[in-house]
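Annotated sample (chain length 85).
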Amino acid sequence: MPTFPEWWNWDLSFTAHAELRMEQRGVTEVELRAMLERATAFEASIVLGRFMIQTRRGQSPWIVIVEPDSDASLLVVVTVYEVSQ
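Output written by the structure step:
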C-alpha cells in the first residue's frame, strides 16, 4: 500500500452525488470502504484539491474521487466509478 497523506485516516463523508452514483453502480458504503482499504495508488485530480484513488472491485479497476476537508478533518467521497478497459 502506498504512503498516503494524513487525511487518509480521517473519517469519511459522502456527497449526495457520491451516494447517487454508488446506488446507480451497485456499490454499498461497506464495499466502498473495503475498496479504499485495498487502494493501490493515488494522484491529484484535474480538479484542484481532489484526488483520484486507484483501487479494485472484484477483478475490475475502479477510481474513487475524494476531497480532503481540512477544516472538518473529513475525507469527502465525491464519486466512484469503474475504469473502462
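Annotation: Residues 13 and 64 are 13 Å apart (CA to CA).
Annotation: The longest strand covers residues 60-69.
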